Fold this sequence. Notes:
By secondary structure, this protein is of the alpha+beta class. The protein has helices spanning about 15-20, 25-30, 35-40, 40-50, 50-90, 95-115, 120-140, and strands spanning about 145, 160-165, 175-180, 185, 190, 195-199. The chain is built from 7 helices and 6 strands; from the N terminus they run H-H-H-H-H-H-H-E-E-E-E-E-E.
Amino acid sequence: MFNKNKKQETPTTEDIKDVNTENTTPEEQAENPLADELNVSAEEVEVNLPSAEEKLKEDLALANDKYLRLYAEFDNYKRRTTKERVDLLQTAGKEVIVSMLTVLDDFERAAKAMENSTDINAVKEGVALVQSKLKNILGQKGLKEMETKGTPFDADIHEAITSIPAPSDNLKGKVVDELEKGYYLNDKVVRFAKVVVGN
């Protein structure tokens, strides 16, 4: 018995071999749809396939497009980081400047007080307080004084202005006097100490 629900099978290679277009008449070819499909020449099949040259051109176009996109992205990144760097340089000292404004206010008050003051000790105390406040603020920002007197001369942190005969043998090759203080900012030298070295 025939099964009505059975799917129609696709033609096998045996079925295709049975279709011999060379020995059939034009009327038979018209009746058989597979005959037209088999009459396609090898040249026509090759035309539909992309050649190696076309494939290489397509790959080159894709690589070029990828390169252009990457270059544009890098160019945007470079512009953005340059702008951020400029902004940072313009506002880098803002925090320090704002914290120093209170010291500037204290100096202005001290200058007004000195105009009418007759007590020199009070003026000295006021200046000492302002100096102490300034040192504390700078210390909070990472500034630290160098200790130089009596230490061995180090060209990495000291700038020798002159050398004098050492007052004692234990000061030979060491810092005898300090003309200008040196400073560290977060353990990095920001100003060399100007010193006198004993020889």
